[in-house]
Design a protein that fits this description.
5 strands, single chain, globular, TPR-like_helical_dom_sf, Tetratricopeptide repeat protein, mainly alpha
Length: about 575
């Protein structure tokens, strides 16, 4: 049997669900043309185009050197149509669409990436790309003249080649649009059995295969696509189905970009393949970070512990020690072990005074402060933060700036939780002395906490003005996600000032922002508060309303597929 005939047999089972999906209203049909380039599938697309459906082929495999390329290909057909029919629909999506096209510049200036130093995978940058992509597709389906009223059918004939970001976007699109979106995926019998079976043993799987299996299984079980189980000829070894990725080059920069963009499966596959040309130090750094982002904290700890052993100089060993202590402290709650690692590392660099030594020493002070904080030793934690800030004060560079911001934030928080809002406000306002304080992204974060602390100090009018300035920054940044929080807090502050009609309008605007981002909890909270204010004579019932918090940073959980497997997310 030649390759074309085999591929034809492999793809034939897709026809039934495709034909079922054709029933009912007209379609917007996006067909994943790669990696098979199947003539029958392209012929199917041509037939539907002739019948009046909107049809486009998209590159389901993508380019590993461009982490968002597959998602960009999914969005591109709508983008080009919008430019012709309704260009006004592009307003508000500029930075995200530019990032999809490979230009990260506009979005990187208004959205924070994942934090390597804090081992935090939460990335406003990735969140905005995914959230805006889905919101853009939903806007097109609802308002684009040629697409309005049509059902969206997305065909992915080989799910093993779909990257993590594209699957996340399809999951969000399916869950937000319900029956108006159908997703058809191809999967072999063996792969389907493996992914659907809760009792399937994982101990024989390698790391990347295990992670890929968990992610695909959660996608199938939560997104509920139309899964096509092929004939026996379609079966393939499990590893090939679960871990078939294009290789990234052995370049730390390329792999780090994949990690920071959320393409964790691709990065893990590249880092665990034999014959890698990466140095031991580079591999340990990137592999530890990948496992930390995946939630495999024990594995990440093993990697960083090995990096400490293999470090060729005290500075590299201290940097690995920061990661080890952070995992032990923040993720594994082994505080005594974390403190021992910190003290050992401090001793090893105690005589070094150059900028790199000062930077690592300041990070160690910062993690040590977290140990004290978790033990509820707030005064000791504050002192460690103060020592860290003094250590890094004269050190330049983006890493040092990030640490200074983190230390000032921690010192302010420690004063706040110790019942001293005035002291917390005084420390927080040091931010205005840092370079970059006029940047909209910087100001948004500063103003939000500043307003909350002003309110805690009994100054609701000043707090309202500061929060209003924060809202203006969210408009400058097209930050719909955070408007759900800023708008709600503006409503609370307006209610405290007795301005109930204004408060009701702010709650409504917060709810609109929450609905746009599919943040159901925030939407319900805003709706309840609006009703409470509308029914409250003289503001009596508004006394139970409180601010959403004193920090704007939020875990962007909305783009995560809920774990079914019980694996750490």
């Amino acid at each position: 049997m030649n390759a074309d005939t085999q591929r034809q047999q492999m793809a034939t089972p897709l026809m039934d669900p495709l034909e079922r999906a054709l029933e009912g209203r007209p379609l917007v049909l996006l067909v994943g043309a790669d990696p098979w380039r199947l003539p029958w599938l392209e012929a199917f697309a041509a037939r539907q185009r002739e019948s009046g459906d909107m049809v486009a082929l998209w590159d389901a495999a993508g380019d590993p050197l461009r982490p968002h390329s597959a998602l960009a290909s999914l969005v591109a057909p709508f983008q080009s149509t919008v430019a012709l029919e309704a260009p006004e629909l592009l307003i508000g999506f500029g930075p995200e669409l530019a990032a999809l096209a490979g230009d990260d510049g506009p979005l990187s200036r208004i959205a924070l990436p994942a934090s390597e130093r804090r081992l935090s995978r939460e990335s406003e940058f990735n969140f905005r790309i995914l959230e805006a992509s889905v919101r853009f597709l939903r806007t097109c389906l609802a308002q684009l003249p040629s697409a309005s009223g049509r059902k969206l059918l997305v065909v992915a004939p080989a799910i093993d080649r779909l990257d993590r970001l594209t699957l996340l976007a399809l999951d969000q699109l399916r869950r937000s649009e319900g029956r108006s979106v159908t997703i058809v995926i191809g999967l072999s019998n063996e792969a389907y059995r493996t992914l659907a079976d809760d009792d399937e043993p994982e101990r024989h799987l390698l790391g990347v295969e295990k992670e890929r299996r968990r992610f695909l299984r959660d996608f199938i079980r939560t997104t509920d696509p139309e899964v096509v189980k092929g004939p026996s000829e379609w079966d393939a070894p499990q590893a090939a189905i679960l871990a078939e990725f294009p290789n990234l080059p052995d370049e730390p920069g390329a792999i780090l970009r994949a990690i920071q963009a959320g393409q964790l499966d691709v990065a893990l596959a590249s880092l665990t393949r034999p014959c890698s040309r990466l140095s031991r130090a580079e591999r340990s750094r990137l592999l530890g970070l990948t496992h930390a982002y995946l939630g495999n904290f024990a594995l990440a700890l093993d990697v960083y512990e090995q990096a400490r052993v293999e470090a060729e100089d005290p500075i590299s060993r201290a940097r690995a020690s920061v990661y080890v202590a952070l995992l032990l402290n923040k993720r594994l709650s082994e505080l005594d072990r974390a403190q021992a690692v910190i003290e050992t590392a401090m001793g090893e660099i105690s005589g070094l005074i150059d900028g790199n030594a000062r930077l690592e020493r300041a990070w160690l002070f910062n993690v040590h402060a977290l140990v004290h904080f978790r033990r509820r030793e707030n005064d000791a934690a504050f002192e460690k933060c103060r020592e860290g800030l003094a250590e890094v004060k004269t050190v330049a560079g983006s890493d040092a700036m990030h640490l200074k911001v983190n230390l000032i934030n921690n010192m302010s928080t420690l004063r706040e939780v110790s019942g001293d809002p005035e002291g917390a406000l005084l420390i927080w306002q040091r931010f205005q002395k840092l370079s970059g304080a006029g940047d909209p992204l910087f100001r948004k974060v500063f103003l939000f906490r500043n307003a909350a602390l002003l309110d805690a100090c009994g100054r609701p009018a000043d707090a309202y003005e500061a929060m209003l300035d924060c809202w203006r920054e969210t408009e400058t940044l097209s930050d719909v996600f955070h408007q759900a929080y800023v708008g709600y807090d503006l409503g609370v502050l307006a209610a405290r000032l007795g301005q109930l009609q204004r408060a009701e309008r702010w709650f409504e605007r917060a709810g609109e922002a929450a609905v746009a981002c599919r943040n159901s909890d925030a939407a319900a909270r805003a709706k309840h508060a609006a009703a409470l204010v509308a029914d409250a004579p003289n503001g009596i019932a508004t006394t139970n309303l409180g601010l959403t918090g004193s920090k704007l940073g939020r875990p962007f959980h909305l783009i995560h597929i809920p774990p079914i497997t019980g694996a750490s997310q």
